[in-house]
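Consider today's protein:

***
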Amino acid sequence: MATPGPLVHSTASQDTEITVSAAELREMRDGLQRFLMEYRFGLQEVETKIGILRDEFLLTHDYNPIEHVSSRVKSPDSLVEKVQRKGVEADFASIRREITDIAGIRVTCSFVTDVYRLFDLLTAQDDVRLIQVKDYIASPKPNGYKSLHAIVEVPVFLSTGRIEVPVEVQFRTIAMDFWASLEHKIYYKYATRVPDDLLESLKDAAQTASELDERMERLHREIRGNGSARAVVGRSVHGDMRPYLTIAPAASVLPVPTATADPADASDASGTSPSVQPATTTVTDQPLEPAPTTVTETPVEPTSTTVTGPPAGPVTSV
């Protein structure tokens, strides 16, 4: 693969003017597009892996540990700014070696245990190479920031062959993500010169967020521990959930919506597994159709011999 030209021209001063021909500009543009394309493909590989874990977890364990996922590839302006700030040589080989967060994905989880579980599942895959880990959950930053950062390397197969692309993956909880978003806005507003009292308040808020994570996870364990058996009751052989059957005892009779209750579905679920027996019993106890006696007693078709009260309408119109 041909090595692209430099991303930016090194100069003695940022204010120095340089002259670049149209051909050189096109070459720089094409080189930068090819360079960032590799990171975009690497990001898609990691996104696919995270999506597979999420969908499989939901189907197999009836639980989704991922709240949401966001990703980005650094813009050219952001990349040039970081190259200059870190003093990296302005060529693609040096940038690839020195800057590892060009492609980034953030996975927001429900609980801290989900963070470590997903990290383990991702990095255990044989085509994922773990390059670096920074555990700010176990050791928060001085300002209270918490997150689990990992740099992984994944293979991307191009027409020219296989390349290894680094991708930064950040795992955090909802509370951590909320705090980090607020902290970022405050630092942006004050141009990184945040007043000391506000910094202290942010640190206190980080502690509060951490305590909230612990309390919510404790509640989650109690709910899953006490209600895990009931959570699977009502799942039919087709995999659809019947929420109105989930927590009812077998002897109770529940109002089954006529639009969704289908006797054929109930009979199909009968006997398929012990977990669906209460749902089946509940459905069969509920009269899904009016009894025949009820139909005959209702003056649906009045005649001169059976109508005892005022007729519903002229007999001749029936």
In short: Residues 130 and 151 are 6 Å apart (CA to CA). The beta strands are 66-73, 103-109, 129-135, 148-158, 161-173. The radius of gyration is 31 Å. Residues 22-61 form the longest helix (40 residues).
